Amino acid sequence: MNETLRPRILCISFSDIRSDARVLRQLDVLARHGDVTTLSYGERPDAAHDHLQIDSALPSLPQTVSGVLKLALRRYRSVALDAPAVRAAREALGAREFDIVVANEARALPLARAVAGSPRIWCDLHEWAPAERSHVLSWRLLVAPFMDWVCRTYLPGVDAATTVNQSIATMYEEHFGARTEVVRNAMAYCPDLAPSPLASDRIRLVHSGGAVAGRNIEAIIEAVDLLGDRYSLDLYLIQPRQADGYWRKLADRIAASAQTTLHPAVRPADLPQTLNAYDLGVFVLPPHTPNHRLMLPNKFFDFVQARLGIVFGPAVETDRLIRDHRLGVITEGYTAADLVRAIQGISREDVARFKQSAHDVAELLSSEADIAVQDAILTRLVHA
Fold first, then answer.
1. Which of 33, 175, 247, 279 has the highest local Cβ count within 10 Å?
2. What is the dihedral sign for C-alpha 256, 259, 261, 266?
3. Using CA atoms, how far apart are residues 128 and 109, in angstroms rounded to an integer?
4. Are residues 179 and 243 in the same domain?
5. Burial, 210: exposed, middle or buried (Cβ in 10 Å; 0-12, 13-18, 19+)?
6. Structural domain span for residue 276
7. Are the C-beta atoms of 62 and 68 separated by less than 8 Å?
8. Does residue 196 lie in a domain region?
9. Alpha helix (H) residue ranges in the chain
10. DSSP secondary structure string for all residues of 264-279
């Protein structure tokens, strides 16, 4: 690699990066190390030097008739670059050469390997790829074996790999022999925020994130209805790229709740300031997949930076952090009734204490350590 020129870095993500908090944070680090071209759905993110846009209507998995048939016949090598979004991405790339390619999620690995210029490849796996949607029968039967093949075929050849926590990193090493470093979903430290005072008349619950079927948002709405008018719920939801029917159904359910208010999504960087006005950040995700059981999501760290108390459903990684730092409570299960019991057991004094605990550990649970891991990876790849 010619060190007199800034490295050419390609960042692939089959998401709209502008609303993808993890990739946005990654992109900020990449831009310090080279000139970044993003290849994704949606418009150019601010930190990108150049951008190649994929039509958001194109799926990133081989969901055509021929693609599904190839998946069913286990013809994985012939289908690896066959998804509509991947074909469009290859056409957009043409013969462009890059020094480093960052593949976000395992599904981007075949495309990353096809990029011209013999680039170094860093795969940010995010979570456990073979079980991303294993609660869906078609995924479990057709896509999960394909994702397992992708990992077995391509991970041994990457120059760096990262994932969201140590539990999942251990799984990649045990199953695929891939040494995987940890980059959490933590966001930057917000030094100017402090716990907001409690309102005199109610406890203010809040939830932010994607409006995705299976995220159990309905249970939170039902819980606040059962809790009564001493509680309120505000939702900052990202409307799904597809699944309009689910969005309409969810919006109708929100409209029927006297205590629930729906707000437009805000930029990931603006979430802590926006959420700071509330008291308890709430999330109860049933463990339908290993990723759910081992989750360490963006919203956990968003709530900490916003100086909120936390009410989460049981999950290995978040349980540990909530208990170690006394950040909030863990529900017994994932139903509205479980959530009601947990919240009813929290006094106003508890809420204030949880918010102060979040304030005390906000710097510790910020992205500083994660940025150091990414900087070390990029320095290694630039000078390889």
1. 279
2. negative
3. 14
4. no
5. middle
6. 203-361
7. yes
8. no
9. 21-33, 65-72, 76-79, 84-93, 109-114, 137-138, 144-154, 166-176, 217-227, 244-255, 271-275, 290-293, 298-305, 316-325, 336-344, 348-361, 368-382
10. E---GGGHHHHHTT-S
| pLDDT 10s digits, 37-89 | 999 999 999 999 999 999 999 999 998 899 999 999 999 999 999 999 999 99
C-alpha span between 222 and 40 (Å, rounded): 36
Q: Is the pTM of this model over 0.85?
A: yes
Tokens found for residue 355: 């918010």
Which pair of structure tokens corresponds to residue 223?
A: 């819980």
Tabulate helix, strand, coil % of the chain (nearest 5).
45, 20, 35
215 and 149, same domain (yes or no): no
CATH of the domain at 151: 3.40.50.2000
Q: What confidence tens digit (pLDDT) does each residue in 126-148 have?
A: 999 999 887 788 888 999 999 99
Q: Report how far apart the first and last C-alpha atoms of the chain are (Å, whole number).
A: 8
Give the CA dihedral 270, 53, 160, 5, nearest 10 degrees. Answer: -100
Based on the fold, state whether residues 171 and 320 are members of the same structural domain. no
Local structure of 372: helix, strand or coil: helix
252-279 burial, b at 16+ Cβ within 10 Å, e below that, comes to eebeebebbebeebeebeebbebbbebb
> Token digits for 129?
């790829």
Q: Do 220 and 130 reside in the same domain of the chain?
A: no
Block residue for tokens 């109860």: 284
- d(CA 251, CA 249) in angstroms, rounded, equals 6
List, in sequence order, every residue forming a beta bridge with 100; answer none if it has no partner. 9, 120
DSSP code per residue over 178-192: ---EE--S-----TT
